[in-house]
Structure formats: structure tokens, C-alpha cells
């Protein structure tokens, strides 16, 4: 098994590479997010161990970029950011697990073993709406052998629409669900994201559209 480790603390990075090598893994180490993106994009790794705070590109942006480009390599975040909302943020970015610092080496190895076992049994996590599919692993919409990558917010909006078949969703419901109660985001932001999704559906020739219902909200439906 080949592991990529991205950690900006040189002493910890060296220790982690050594830890995995003495436990029969092949390990490569990088100290910044930009190099980690280049290495991980090769698709040659069985697992990623990523620090969240790194120079060049932070771990969250790194993993979102990988997921949007179709790289499904399992990933575990290591971070001193231990608040619940911070862990949720990491998991929502596409991580399989999140281990707060400081951590025990035994627990780290156990979590990596569990992560790699899940990879061996991996099947794409898809939601379907007619002939259209939403891939939760790669953040892509797929139709007729074509696919379009979605940004994080576009993905969340599309997921919400596809999971609420036949239901008109208000812009306010979308804002609350995706951005939270205390956000300053207004309905114009929802409109922009939905407009972008529509363009991507059209580019694929998908027989699905997001219809605006006046004075009500948005509805995902198949074209007649």
C-alpha cells in the first residue's frame, strides 16, 4: 500500500514517513498543499494523510480540488483544529476520517487500516433522477457517458434538489440548509449557483431542468 503524507512540520513529517515505512507501507512526504495536489493527482496512492493548515494550499482546498477532478483516493485529515464544526468541514470537503492532534501512532495506523479496507469495498455513491446521476464521491453530475464537475455549493444544491423529488424548495430553505442560519448570503447567490448548474446540465444534453416556480421556489424535473 502506498501512502502520501502532507504535513508542513518537518519533524512530524519525517516521523510519519518513518512510522508508515516501518509498518510496511510505501510512504511519500510533502510539506505543502501545492506539491500534495500534484502528487495526489497522479492517482498512484492508496491513501492520503493530510494536514489541514499548510502553505501553498490548505488541506480543505486540496481535497475539494481532488474530489472535483474525480480523484477518489481515501483521505484522512490530521489537524489541531478540534472543534466539531471544523471536523464537519473536513468531512464535507471529502475526507473519510479526521484525527485531531495530538494523536497516538497506534490510533493513526488503525484509522488508516480501516480507511484502506473501505477503499477495497468501494462502490460509487450515486443518486439518480431519471437518467441523470449525481456522484457523491466525485462531485459530478453524469448523463449518457458525459459528466460535469460541480463546485461544493453546486453539489450541495443539486443533492438537495435530487433528494426532494417533486418538492418545491425555497431559496431560503436552500440558504439555511447549505450556508446555515446566521449567514449573510442572500437569494441572489442561490440564483447564481443554480444558473451555473443549469448550464452544466445543458452542456451534457441532460433531459433534466431546474424550474423556477414564481413566488414559490425551485423544482428539479425531467424535461417533457
Task: Please give a structural write-up.
- This protein folds into 2 domains: 2-120, Response regulator (Rossmann fold), CATH 3.40.50.2300; 126-222, Winged helix-like DNA-binding domain superfamily/Winged helix DNA-binding domain (Arc Repressor Mutant, subunit A, Orthogonal Bundle).
- The chain has 8 helices and 11 strands.
- The chain is α/β, with parallel strands linked by helices and 224 residues long.
- The longest helix has 18 residues, at 187-204.
- The strands form 3 sheets. It has a 5-stranded parallel beta sheet, sandwiched between helices. Strands 6-7-8-9 form a 4-stranded antiparallel beta sheet, covered by helices on one side.
- Helix content is 42%, strand content 23%.
- Helix 2 packs parallel to helix 3 and helix 6 (152-162) packs across helix 8.
- The chain has helices spanning 10-22, 33-40, 59-68, 84-92, 105-120, 152-162, 171-179, 187-204, and strands at 2-6, 26-30, 47-51, 75-79, 97-100, 126-129, 132-135, 140-143, 146-149, 208-213, 217-222.
- It is elongated.
Amino acid at each position: 500500500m502506498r501512502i502520501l503524507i502532507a504535513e508542513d512540520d518537518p519533524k512530524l513529517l519525517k516521523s510519519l514517513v518513518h512510522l508508515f515505512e516501518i509498518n510496511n507501507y510505501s510512504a511519500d512526504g510533502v510539506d505543502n498543499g501545492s506539491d500534495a495536489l500534484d502528487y495526489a493527482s497522479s492517482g498512484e496512492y492508496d491513501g492520503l494523510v493530510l494536514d489541514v493548515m499548510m502553505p501553498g494550499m490548505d488541506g480543505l482546498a486540496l481535497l475539494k480540488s481532488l474530489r472535483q477532478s474525480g480523484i477518489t483516493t481515501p483521505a484522512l485529515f490530521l489537524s489541531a483544529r478540534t472543534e466539531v464544526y471544523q471536523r464537519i468541514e473536513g468531512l464535507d470537503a471529502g475526507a473519510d476520517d479526521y484525527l485531531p492532534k495530538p494523536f497516538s501512532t497506534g490510533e493513526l495506523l488503525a484509522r488508516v487500516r480501516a480507511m484502506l479496507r473501505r477503499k477495497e469495498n468501494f462502490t460509487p455513491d450515486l443518486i439518480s433522477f431519471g437518467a441523470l446521476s449525481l456522484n457523491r464521491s466525485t462531485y459530478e453530475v453524469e448523463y449518457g457517458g458525459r459528466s460535469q464537475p460541480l463546485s461544493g455549493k453546486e453539489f450541495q444544491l443539486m443533492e438537495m434538489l435530487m433528494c426532494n423529488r417533486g418538492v418545491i424548495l425555497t431559496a431560503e430553505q436552500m440558504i439555511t440548509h447549505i450556508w446555515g442560519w446566521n449567514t449573510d448570503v442572500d437569494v441572489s447567490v442561490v440564483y447564481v449557483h443554480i444558473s451555473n448548474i443549469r448550464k452544466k446540465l445543458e452542456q451534457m444534453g441532460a433531459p433534466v431542468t431546474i424550474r423556477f416556480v414564481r413566488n414559490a421556489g425551485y423544482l428539479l424535473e425531467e424535461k417533457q
